[in-house]
Design a protein that fits this description.
Elements: H1 2-17, E1 22-29, H2 38-54, E2 68-79, E3 84-96, E4 103-111, E5 116-117, H3 134-154, H4 160-171, H5 175-180, H6 193-201, H7 206-216, H8 227-247, H9 252-269, H10 274-287
Parallel strand pairs: 1-2
Antiparallel strand pairs: 2-3, 3-4, 3-5
């Protein structure tokens, strides 16, 4: 009997140690709610939170202080039926900066194709190589994409395994599902999940991933001890991104980088020397053409 109890306790502890890579906070906004009982969305919020925070996404142990901070905001756009919904998903992920209390934005995205079927108390689950439902697949896709982004920021191309798993999730989407729920196919547009992961695994675009490592480990993480070296590392990262942009202009990866890092870059390089500010202004005006005007302040 003691042996059985010991095994149960051991298994519970083992699962706990190998779960909870995320501290994911979920918000669901329902401004257009008309017919569905609001309690359904309270249940959905709890289900997504439990799924993201309690699934063992890796076999690596995470302390509480190591959890990746994630915010999911689901904005309901349409109730197609009592169980079918069209929504946007806004994702915000941050990464701690060494020897500081500052969290750097790591990934910011607005998925406008976050449509799904959900029945109250429906289980959400991830099974490697198996398609369960569109909602579970979308959440699992982003879980592994976020893990890949986080690991890339700590070691050069360190997120490869997780990006590959995100792509496997995409590849396992049945054609009938991809036809009814947009975001999984190249034909659905340049800002879809398809191109988000394609860009990360495209051999010709690996420089942007190397840039994310330079930006964080050899850039931001040095700012507390050597801000000159830190800004130099960040500038090198921008040059990596600039090189990718020349070969793949206006790619999804470049747009996401600019959206995520634009304001931070301005704040960091305000203290740079004149030549550095001019160079960064030149690069960011190309990477973030839509927001080019805001970088002009760095030139003065």
């Amino acid at each position: 009997m003691k042996y059985i109890i010991y095994c149960i306790v051991f298994c519970f502890v083992f699962v706990q140690l190998h779960a909870q890579e995320f501290n994911c906070k979920v918000t669901i906004n329902t401004p257009k709610l008309q017919t569905v009982d609001p309690k359904v969305f309270q249940t959905l919020k709890s289900a997504i939170s439990d799924f993201m925070n309690n699934t063992a996404w890796t076999d690596i142990s995470y302390d509480n202080s190591e959890k990746i901070e994630v915010n999911f905001t689901i904005n309901l756009k349409e109730e197609v039926s009592n169980t079918t919904f069209k929504a946007d998903l806004a994702i915000q992920v941050v990464r701690p900066v060494y020897a500081s209390d500052y969290n750097s934005p790591l990934f910011s995205n607005l998925d406008k194709d976050f449509s799904f079927i959900y029945e109250e108390f429906q289980p959400l689950q991830y099974s490697k190589g198996v398609y369960n439902d569109n909602l579970s697949s979308m959440l699992s896709f982003y879980a592994y994409y976020i893990l890949g982004s986080d690991y890339d920021s700590f070691s050069s191309l360190g997120g490869e395994t997780y990006f590959q798993t995100a792509q496997e999730i995409l590849n396992n989407i049945p054609q009938s599902v991809a036809n009814n729920f947009t975001g999984w196919r190249a034909a659905d547009g340049a800002k879809t999940r398809y191109f988000i992961i394609e860009n990360m695994l495209n051999p010709g675009m690996k420089a942007i991933r190397q840039g994310m490592y330079e930006y964080h480990r050899r850039g931001l993480d040095l700012m507390s001890t050597d801000p000159v070296a830190g800004r130099a590392g960040m500038q090198k990262a921008l040059e990596y991104c600039d090189a990718v942009n020349k070969s793949y202009p206006n790619s999804s990866a470049i747009q996401l980088f600019a959206i995520t890092k634009g304001d931070e870059i301005i704040n960091v390089f305000k203290a740079g020397d004149a030549s550095q500010r001019a160079k960064v202004t030149q690069i960011m005006s190309k990477l973030d053409a839509a927001g080019a005007q805001k970088y002009v302040q760095l030139a003065f």
